[in-house]
Amino acid sequence: MRYRTIHGYRRAYRIAGSGPPIVLVHGIGDNSSTWDPIITRLAEHYTVIAPDLLGHGFSDKPRADYSVAAFANGLRDLLWVLGHERVTLVGHSLGGGVAMQFCYQYPSMVSRLVLVSAGGVTRDVSPALRLATLPGVGSLLGLLRVPGAMTALDTAAKALAATPALPGRAAPLSPSRHLTDRSDIVRILRDLAPPDARAAFGRTLRSAVDWRGQHVSMLDRAYLTAGIPVLIAWGTADTVIPYRHAEIAHAAITGSLLETFDGCGHFPFRDEPDRFAALVDDFVSTTVPGTFDPRAWRKMLIEGADPVVLGDQGEQLSALTRAEIAEAMAIELSAN
User: Which of 68, 298, 326, 333 has a CA positioned 20 to 30 A from the CA of residue 165?
Assistant: First the structure.
């Protein structure tokens, strides 16, 4: 773990290995330790940098801007301080949205992009996260500081996770289905006990989610990744951000690769670390780094892409083939 002070705020980050740089960006409420199962594996061939985003982990938690764009700015500043001008980005959950925003804001700095259970596709997100945006709910997290609260929560979660599906109930309605990531969710909740961490979590969450779901989408600018190799990895049992988002993102990002982790939840890199690390290694070693051409970028911005409205949610997919458009529309409409 290392620290750098940038703009007066302490930024924490983990760094290991040597070689081409790979940057691992964690999700909301989480921190760089979430990548522990794969850091050592990737560090055999790469310089691995895993920051704690501002407001998370061991980084400072000021009253500040916690938007996706602000996180992208902070990531850019840290990489410049560390002397890295071009990197492969791996973003998980909120970190996937940050990575996508980083590509939009600083395209010349991105060699490749890996989106893991990424936020910012359509509105769908865990009901618990939507509920957490309501007034007063954040203060309830203060109960996590009560002695024994986390132990009781973990015990209850274990009991629910072990509960078999009820007769006649579909798998998605079974208690165990919704606790696929029990240990990781409890781990994150434990870190939210301090008041400054809860405040930063609330500001971060409300910048991207409200009671109706996610209100920030990457789809309207997905066509701008045309010059960058993109890999999408998702677990089919993800109850935080549904797997169908992987299929929509894959359709929206021309030339992207989709890797499905059957039976895995929201953290496939923790469920199957060997497979995930090997996947990233293979992706980096077999693809040509993206290049930034200002003239081509300007041309894409001028021409844009024909938007396709899905269902009644007003979400857009860009640069799709007719078959992909039809498939994406069928996925979205089936959920309405």
Answer: 333
> How is residue 175 written in tokens?
């208690």
Say if residue 154 is in the same domain as residue 245: no
List all residues 6 or more positions away from 140 whose beta carbon is below 8 Å from its beta carbon.
none
The rounded distance, in Å, linking the Cα atoms of 141 and 58 is 19
Contacts of 75 (CB under 8 A, 6+ apart): 23, 25, 51, 53, 98, 102
- To the question of pTM greater than 0.90 for the whole model, the response is no
Is the model's pLDDT at 231 over the cut of 70?
yes
DSSP bridge partners of 223: none
CA 336 – CA 329 distance, rounded (Å): 11
Catalytic residues: 93, 238, 266
Which pairing describes strands 87-92 and 47-51: parallel, antiparallel, or unpaired? unpaired
Is there a contact between 25 and 90 (Cβ–Cβ < 8 Å)? yes
Determine which helix (DSSP H) or strand (DSSP E) holds 244, and give its type and residue range.
helix 244-252
Domain that residue 287 falls in: 2-125+212-300
Residue pLDDT, tens place only, 234-267? 999 998 999 999 998 998 898 999 999 999 999 9
Please compute Rg for the chain using Cα positions: 19
- Cβ(80)–Cβ(95) below 8 Å: no
What is residue 232's three-state secondary structure?
Answer: strand
Dist. CA 329–CA 331, nearest whole Å: 5
Ramachandran angles phi, psi of 24, nearest 5°: -105, 120
Residues 6+ apart with CB under 8 A from 187: none
Say if residue 76 is in the same domain as residue 166: no
The answer to whether residue 312 is domain-embedded is no
User: In angstroms, rounded to a whole number, what is the distance separating the alpha carbons of residues 237 and 272?
Assistant: 13
- Joined together, the tokens standing for residue 241 give 């951000």
Cβ(26)–Cβ(92) below 8 Å: yes
- Best CA proximity match to 104, nearest among 16, 185, 222, 195: 222
Domain annotation covers residue 265:
yes
Position 139 scores a pLDDT of 60
